[in-house]
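Usage

Read records sequentially. Each one opens with the input sequence:
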Amino acid sequence: MFLEVESNLNCESSVFLRFKEVSPPLPITHIKVYDRLPQGEWCSVTGWCEDTEQPLCTVFAQKVEDSGAGIATLIFGGPYGIRLKLEQNAEAWDLESDQQWGEPYLLLSGDGDIRYV
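and closes with the structure output:
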């Protein structure tokens, strides 16, 4: 599988990566991130695409081979990456919000920190 994310307002980084798929992609709604707290925080996640009227799209988790980690879980969305906000944040998805952030993709060590649809 190839993962390509263009530089955009959601995430400045552009990436073009290749992964060997180990499982089919499955849609997800939340992931746990450990950026601020050691115990982690659940975040809502959505994919971001180029459609300015309807930029939201499905986010997927897929097991892939990663040269540095063995088997990992790739979290990916649209051509503009994924967007996250803390689970308790009820505001609408918005590129202008300082309570939300974008990533081109995430690579997790397992799927225990993922909520599937």
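Summary fields computed downstream for this record:
- The longest strand covers residues 26-33.
- Residues 2-116 form one domain.
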